[in-house]
Amino acid sequence: MEVDNVVSTVREPLNWSGRWNHIQKVLERSGPFAHPDFEPSPDILGFLLNNCKLLVIGAGGLGCELLKNLTLTGFRHIDVIDMDTIDLSNLNRQFLFRQNDIGKAKATVASDFINNRVKGAEVVPHFCKIQDYDASFYKQFHIVVCGLDSIVARRWINGMLISLLEYDEDGNLDQTSVIPMVDGGTEGFKGNARIILPGLSACMECTLDLYPPQVNFPMCTIAHTPRQPEHCVEYVKVFGWEKEKPFGDAPIDGDNPEHIKWICGSACERAEQFGIQGVTYRLTQGVIKRIIPAVASTNAVIAAACSTEVFKLASSCGAPMNNYMVFNDADGVYTYTFEAEKSETCVACSQKPKTIHFKPTSQLRELIEFLCQDSMLQMKSPGITTTVNGNSKTLYMKSIPSIERATRPNLSKSLADLGLSSGQELIVADVTTPNSLIFILKLSDQRSAET
Amino acid sequence: MANKQNKYDRQLRLWGDHGQWCLENSKICLVNVTATGTETLKNLILPGIGSFVIVDKSRVNGEDAGSNFFLDPNAIGESKAKVATNLLLELNPEVKGEYIEEDVANILETNPHFFLSFTVVIACNLYGETLQKLAALFWCNNIPFVTCKSFGFIGYLRLVIPEHCIIESHPDNSHEDLRLDCPFEELCAYADTIDLDAMDKKDHSHTPYVIILYKYLMEWKKAHSGAMPKTWKEKKEFKKLVMSGIRKNADGVPEDEENFDEAVKQVNSALVPSCVPEKVQKIFNDPKCLQLTEESTDFWMMVGGLRQFVSNSENGLLPLRGSLPDMFSDSDKYIKLQNIYQGKAKQDMEAVTGHISQVCTKSGCGNGKISEKDIKRFCRNAHFLRVVRTRSLQSEYESPSKSIMDSLTSDEISDAVWYVLLRAVERFQSTNGRLPGMNNAEWESDVNRLKNCLYDLLKSWDIPGAVEAISDDFLQEMCRCGSSEIHSVASYMGGVTSHEVVKLITAQYIPICNSYIYNGYKSTSVTIDI
């Protein structure tokens, strides 16, 4: 390989002549649409190549595209996290994987492929969950890009990056502690891409109502009045499997074709009882695994939009999107870009503990239901502790069985009976956030509501 | 061997086995290896097109290898088409691919017939006469032609389609075909046997809302000389009437009857008059429908039969769709109702089949018998039929587009302005033999040259004054980018373009008509009918 003297600040044999010509044009030339702080210089490419550290979360449909795009636009030092292994059904879009990679860790195979194809790329794989790492890991990155398939995970990393923010004594944000998060999501022919600047712009929790919870079938429909083939499958999943134990004590494994086949057969029987048509293997699998349809094209579009934003954020050669784009190419091609607004009362990034209102006679279970069902909170299984009479007290914690058993009676006790008073600080932990959140409890006999 | 049903599962849920069949029997041609082009092909190979051919005479150079995932730096100096083909083939063992190391202009001269075997042809970075000639060839042969490129932060896509007929357009939101405004005989017969007042509590609260609305509409019509609720005030009154049907307990408190709540919510939707949608009416009046010949495609034959069905029917409506949305109800009542809708839909479908046969025989185009499956699918989607015809490329270049002219004279500059700039760039290319901003030394002085090209272009459109409406900032940025291909922008366009091609191959979902501009500066985009 020849040494390239166009890229003057990078003395590496990996930069063959002309390699970075395309991006150098926008990095080394000024333009009216660049970021106001932009100063064109060959040093910028040097920064991207040698100093900029990126974290890509997810090595699936979006992740594969992200790794390709980022390494082909000058980024070398990229860490990628994914806890999954490769499945046959991934191959229609996760193009870094081949037939013989099935069963291997996505992060590892993806990084090997990229490092091999894009000379000089140093992608480091992490075959684990994002929750396995703490602040000391995450703070090393300049930008975090997410290609996740879970809202809970997005909220977690959002919370993690917010926890890294530093404020001075006057409460001013130290902007050097801000790690931008670029997030993409896809579903069939729909997708979205957004930029989150923790502490500065709308975060995941600010706009949680953009992600309403999945709607489940009502239980009475499943149990008594099925009408659709999906209801029949759900019945077998919820009741039939437990009752018949077709494979001993084994729980349902959506990836096991024998399980799906059995469920399908059983669902067909139920469907026949009610005169319902349409139970098929594909439908059964879709219900059991909650399958979301996916194609290469949508993943390509959304990952590309995200990558372009990362490129602009890291280099300032263009102004970043402000700040949320939705995409749909089922009917024509439609995009809409808007500014999601930061909430002054956000539980995650406003630095103000949220106040919630209940009657003293309300039961603890009502409070917990509220934390789970409110569209701006959507917690999964919150654990609550507080201080009563100077002593730390666990009110309820579902996640640890022994504590769950011990605190279960509290659910039907009233807040007053539990010794809580108005103005009390409640410390709430949940899978949706790496750090506990503080809520201020206000008790009054007025109708319970929260501001 | 890979199990195709499993491998393609996630996409089969979007376009079905029949859509997949179309993909696997398609032949795609890519003219010119650019990052945009190879990314488009990647997104077609992964879902399993039948085969592809890449046409490109040029050799891999340093900058190509730097921004293209399918060009190897170890292959600098080799044929671009060959290298790209080999790396693309790795993506999917089911797909076949070949390359031709030839200049497309040459093939057009010596063997244009080569191009006619393709399902869709995609061309990147073609300009001037070659572009026009290629487009014209496909236009005459009714082959969809796609041209796309990335230019710095800007992406451009144009579909050139003489005629594309869609049965399964998969509308996102559509009204259900319940016919509550003109209930059919079988529905009336069943609903008339139901006496809501005589029902016990359980039955009453588990009766589907279709029946509830039917009953109360009957009551309303009796009191209003047969008229349906029409004004906002009337609909409000009607909703109150439906609510009044909710049973009350011993204390006079209304019971919890979810089916009635649902009925009230559905009133507005259910009262939308059943009709033949405007777009379908237009298709009925299309010359291709009115003059069927032996050459008519299955689509037009079915449209002809459908048209006859509608004009022969008492209510002047399309065949009943037959689908019933899920609604709160016990299983028995829901299934009974569903069977009634499905039965009527089948009846209508059989009648349509008869009309199709007649219409075919009459026009002498009855060679291939259209399958029952196809007619069934056609009838189920009768309300959503679409025919897409774009302007030819020749027409676009001969007479300026109204939508573009409008965009230049409006107050807000939309992303459509980038189209005008790309046309100016094309002019620059033919005047100067190169693209603006390619050389580091000259890029800034290219701004003025580009401005002159822009002026000439607008002059040819009779709007020379519009050059004032386009800020120099745009010209500056075009030269700054110097026709570079930023990989992420190329990849975005590869995604958008590939899905448009999939729509054309499968004839499902609706393609753009006819151009798309992506603005990577602001992450916005626009579709323009140029």
TrEMBL record, chain B:
InterPro entries xrefs: APP-BP1, ThiF/MoeB/HesA, ThiF_NAD_FAD-bd, Ubiquitin-activating_enz
Domain of life: Eukaryota
Keywords for this protein: Ubl conjugation pathway
Annotated ranges, domain THIF-type NAD/FAD binding fold: 8-510
Pathway it works in: Protein modification; protein neddylation
Gene3D superfamilies linked: NAD(P)-binding Rossmann-like Domain
Pfam families in UniProt: ThiF
Annotated family: Belongs to the ubiquitin-activating E1 family. ULA1 subfamily.
Record protein name field: NEDD8-activating enzyme E1 regulatory subunit
Source organism of the structure: Clavelina lepadiformis
Top-level taxonomy: Eukaryota, Metazoa, Chordata, Tunicata, Ascidiacea
